[in-house]
Amino acid sequence: MDQPDRSLADSLATLEGPYFGDFGGRFVPEALIAALDELDTEYSKAKVDPGFTDELQRLHRTYTGRPSIITEVPRFAREAGGARIILKREDLNHTGSHKINNVLGQALLTKRIGKTRVIAETGAGQHGVATATAAALFDLDCVIYMGEEDTRRQALNVARMRLLGAEVIPVTTGSRTLKDAINEALRDWVTNVETTNYVFGTVAGPHPFPAMVRDLQRIIGEEARAQVLDLVGRLPDAVAACVGGGSNAIGIFHAFLDDAGVRLIGLEAGGDGVETGRHAATITAGAPGVLHGARSYLLQDEDGQTVESHSISAGLDYPGVGPEHSWLSSIHRAEYRPITDAQAMDAFKILCRTEGIIPAIESAHALAGAIDLGRELGPDAVILVNLSGRGDKDVETAARWFDLLDHDVAEKVAEIPGEQK
Amino acid sequence: MSAGRSRAGDRLDALRAEGHAALIGYLPVGFPDVAGSVAAATAMVEAGVDIIELGIAYSDPVMDGPVIQHAVERALEGGVRVRDVFGAVEGIAATGAPVLVMSYFNPVLRYGVDAFARDLASAGGAGLITPDLIPDEAGEWIAAADAHDLDRVFLVAPSSSPERLASTAAASRGFVYAASTMGVTGERTSLGERAAELVTATRQAGAARVCVGLGVSTAGQAAQVAGYADGVIVGSAFVRPMLEASSPAQGLEAVAAVARDLSAGVRGADRAEARTR
Ligand SMILES: Cc1ncc(COP(=O)(O)O)c(C=O)c1O
Q1: Contact, A286 vs A246, CB < 8 A?
Q2: pLDDT band for position A419 (50/70/90)?
Q3: Residue A82, Cβ neighbours under 10 Å: how many?
């Protein structure tokens, strides 16, 4: 790996946006600028106000279940050349993924600003479930936009959101997945911005979202760094995380940015394989451009039209990526690699069978990356993996992939559009 | 607002001298196909549209409501390319009406901002309307527009602060596009009060010309807006009859009928407010 370019600052962990090198910014309609300015101002005040930070900490302790534990997985690690593999268990958070870390912060902020309604986009449904949960807790009206395609492959999460009192609106335009859900949420926000806050689910979007969501997810890496030091007595050799928009990855990477000896590896969804064109490996195979309010890498054709992404994992099925990841890649501080559906599902199964942990398929991409890394780095290596979520929502997809359903049922399930295999 | 000859600005000034506001009509290029969009724009000009706003179809049109979303989806399914816009501009400019291109930023960025400006200018285009590009992020486009003598139309919204109205007015050339309401494109039964206030505030912030768009669909609304703005921008009301048309010929007729109706509204407006400003 090339040496990181440290000319920009002594620390790589200080950028507050709007720009991360050539990436980031605010490419949105003027109508949203006032709301983004308001969010930026209020967040800047809140993040140094003990009234806000103490309350968030209290919620994390008493509601989320933080600190999340780390778990060393020696039986799984046998598949990874015998390296020591340690999982950061974001899957054990309330609502089942890292998304709650971000949402509680933004919901508190919504209350501070005095808005009464929140909207959010969701792909896998995890961010939607987390937002619906926070809306119930904080007594906010809640509307979740979800691509129609995703409402089918994550039907259980649709039901969860509705149980929590949220309205789920299936989006039927474009590719009917996460990117179109974001478009529709942005349209709602432009129209209802006086009452409504947009609780964005990842480190993409216009400023201040990339910096704010990162700050709210940074707790993952802060805890994990101390926990690994405590367990192993030294820093890990590598940190692996899956990258959809990039929030769980930036959350675990950030505490290690200035630890030059720690390799940071983001695993993108390789779908059927990058060479097939059916994938969501944005940094691996995309090019810089503007999508959803920020300049960053994206999957686009030669006319700048967004290209549809493909992944077995709804949460990684996004043709964009957060600007800070594009920057970390451009300065060679982090590496991004594709993991195919098949590799991810192999790793998924191995973790189930060797450790009794059913991971989210998103997180299984990070596990597959760790298997490769372990084999590269050898048995002395210590690899920290962000287990960003649990696999309850994915049981149906996995059952079909591994053909675990009895025949009649399998045939019924196979009729559900939007999923192969 | 920067000086320099502005094709759209000159037309707005000439109409103002005659006591009118301009009718500005939007269509996406490539819908129903490239030739069909040129024919429709030509029919609109012949039926009273003063300035054409030609949209580039884009996969993620966040400022557009369902009608325009459907039309651009169909244009993209039909295989329209970004470069098709230049031939279409040339064809429509032959009518004598100024042609502004409306594009989300990424297609322009991907084409190359300066190359896009160069090719738009040599096709006879008047300039570019950029719904998701604010002046703060537009350094490259502002330089390219200066280099190729093109209008640059930025948007203001009811939520814009006085400071932003001033900086947007200063960065624009041709006119400033005032969004009538907080929202996306689409037909609305009533226009907010805020549109007139926004036009006044934008003029006070330094804009020489302000045109109003989003939601205008009837002759009555057009007349109302023409009473205080320099131009009335209409999109979905032109696109919807084309989506619903039983044949291309019927679509052209329907679009021309909408243009005549709106044009009568704009020309019949009580301009007392505009005259006395
Ligand atoms: C469990 C899990 N991991 C990862 C992701 C991907 O998002 P991000 O890249 O922002 O962490 C999702 C998104 O839905 C998710 O549910």
Answers
A1: no
A2: very low
A3: 15
Does pLDDT of A349 surpass 90? yes
Asked if residue B164 lies in contact with residue B201, where contact means CB atoms within 8 angstroms, the answer is: no
Output the six-digit token pair for B254. Answer: 């329907």
CA–CA min distance B255, chain A (Å): 25
Nearest CA in chain B to A193: B182
| Distance from Cα A353 to the centre of ligand 1, integer Å | 23
Chain B residues with CB under 8 Å of A34 CB are 157, 159-161, 164
At which residue do the structure tokens 């269509």 appear? Answer: B27
Largest CA distance in chain A: 62
| ipTM of this complex prediction, to 2 decimal places | 0.94
Q: Does A291 contact chain B (CB < 8 Å)?
A: yes
Sheet hosting strand A293-298, strand order edge to edge: A19-20, A23-27, A293-298, A287-291
Is the minimum CB–CB distance between B250 and chain A shorter than 8 Å?
no
Ligand 1 centroid from CA A248, angstroms: 6
Q: Which tokens in the block code for residue A66? A: 């933080």
Confidence of residue A421 (pLDDT cuts 50, 70, 90): very low
Gap between the terminal Cα atoms of chain A: 37
A284 vs A266: CA distance, rounded Å? 10
Q: Which helix (H) or strand (E) holds B204?
A: helix B194-204
CA distance A382 to B80: 52
| Burial label, A346 (beta-carbon count in 10 A; 0-12, 13-18, 19+) | middle
Atom of ligand 1 nearest to the CA of A390: 1
- Cα–chain center distance at A220: 12
Mean residue pLDDT of chain A comes to: 94
User: With pLDDT > 70 as the criterion, what percentage of chain B qualifies?
Assistant: 96
Choose the mutation target among B58, B111, B153, B159 for the interface with A, i.e. most A CBs under 10 Å: B159
Q: Distance (Å, rounded) from C-alpha A97 to C-alpha A106?
A: 16
DSSP helix/strand/coil, A180? helix
If 0-12 CB within 10 Å is exposed, 13-18 middle and 19+ buried, where does residue A258 land? middle
**Nearest C-alpha to atom 7 of ligand 1 is from which residue?**
A244
CB contact under 8 A, B184 and A183: no
Query: Any idea which residues of A carry the catalytic annotation?
Result: 99, 121, 388
The 10s digit of each residue's pLDDT in A154-176 is: 888 999 999 999 999 999 988 88
| Residues A18-66 pLDDT 10s | 999 999 999 999 999 999 999 999 999 999 999 999 999 999 999 999 9
Question: Do B60 and A290 make contact, defined as CB atoms within 8 angstroms?
Answer: no
pTM surpassing 0.90? yes
Considering only CA atoms, which residue is closest to atom 14 of ligand 1? Answer: A315
Shortest CA gap B58–chain A (Å)? 6
Sort out which chain B residues have CB atoms less than 8 A from A198's CB and list them: none
- Grouping H, G, I as helix, E, B as strand and the rest as coil, residue A25 is strand
A103 lines ligand 1 (CB under 6 A): no
